[in-house]
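Re: export button greyed out
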Amino acid sequence: MNVTRLIDMSIVLPMGDKPLLARPVPAGFPSPADDYIESTINLNDYLVSHKEATFYMRVEGDSMQGAGIFDGDILVVDRSLPKIDQSIVIAVIDGEFTVKQLLIKDGKPCLHAANENYKDIHIKPEQSFEIWGVVKFCIHKCS
Amino acid sequence: MSGKIFALVDGNNFYVSCERVFQPRLEGKPVVVLSNNDGCVVARSQEVKDLGIKMGQPWFKIKAFSTKKNIVCFSSNYTLYADMSSRMMRLLSEFSPNCEIYSIDECFLDLTGFSNYNLNEYGQIIRHRIKELLGLPTCVGIGSTKTLSKLANYIAKKNTSYHGVCDLSALDESEMRWLFQKISVSEIWGVGRQYSERLKKLGIHTVHDLRMAPSKRLREQFSVVMERIISELNGESCIDLEDVPSDKKQIICSRSFGRYISSLEDLKEAMATYVSRAAEKLREQDCLANLVHVFIETNRFNVNMPQYQNAYSISIGKPTSDTRILIKVAWEALTKIYRPGFSFKKCGVYLSDFTKSNAYQPSLFDDPVADHKRQRLMEVMDTVNHSMGRGTLRILGEGVGANWGMARENLSARYTSSIDELGIVKAL
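Workaround output, generated via the alternate export path:
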């Protein structure tokens, strides 16, 4: 007699973390694979290191194609990451969000677009400028 | 002296600040956030305060003035504020082993044992962390009692010279005296308008006055609460951090409608939604309710319309947390008080007479299998709604196209809760 063994409600409600044993168990004979079952992949664990400081944003425009960031992509932005030279960042310039590569030359910040059609923006001291966060991942839909 | 140290951290103009995180162009501009149904002012930026607009002012009264002064106005985006708040509270919990969330934007931290630290510096570290990770400005008040920490927070807020952190425990007696003599007694936590009127009649006008007042005598004239306040003002901690909020004895869910409702069908739909929400809260605290109280009312402020208010209670007989049963009972009560020909503005439900589910004694007439199935169904509903979003699974009676919801004309996007409402970043 085949008995389908349910460990928990995950078979109805996908909950990601818990291992699932949803296959028939011929009475009395366990599978050799049972001991090796691990939890399923949870993308959140991979993408988000600092939950409280992580935000998501949508990209409009193509100035960062060279960095693999395309129009319509979703960016995973982490405000806790250090804002270092060459990191991809969300900057606020004159009140608007923009995504650029941060370059620091002689202590002076410069925002670089990964597209030859767009010029570098050298930040003047009187300009209102803020690094909102560092882009950790870019989610691009391929098909 | 008790040796305890408390810090009260709270967000500056919290709702406004949340909006500004996702719309940085609003920095420095006058911004206002309105209450449910865009009724009145519930949060103001400093620029709006400077324009003389007071908290709680009805929106329709200041609308013209706001347009003239280019005040940007938002409807309350509770989804956003709640999310930012929970992020803030989780971050604050990194700064102390014991925290008490006091409101959506205030949190007490127990810093007892941190006396070796420079508390002022610690306060700055906290402020800096919240600002960096969330973009939210805060103030920190530190004192040897909760009441003093709240007062310190008020001082930090009102005086920019403190740079956002005021540590009363670092001041000596004469400095404290000087500060306290300048603050009205009504600013003390727990002293409301009525108390402060009575205190002023006794010649107690400032915080200093109350701190020096004979606590035993005032206890007789007011209450033990007043005695506790005085003790706390003198550095004797009487109020501890609350560990776990105790179960509510009554759960209410009610809202005003965005537009008037006249039909019983629409009222039933609204009622079903409120009952669902109340039932969810009931299950969260693992209780069963035996009393359902329902009320409906027309708009009392519109004297030109016919007025009708009524309420009805039904004792179920068998305590339950099953949404379907609660809706059925609420509808029964609603049908009893409903009258056609009126334009209703509000309805709501109170659940009370609770029993803890594990303390419930089944009777001879109960059907344990049906009860178990009922419980499992509610569990599934709650689990799905919890992980996939509130309202994913609903009782059909709640309706599918609610057109009586809160009027919120100027709602910003749910930047942190909806993948379709993310902030836009320009790659230009």
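Helices of chain A lie at 43-47. The button fix ships in the next patch.
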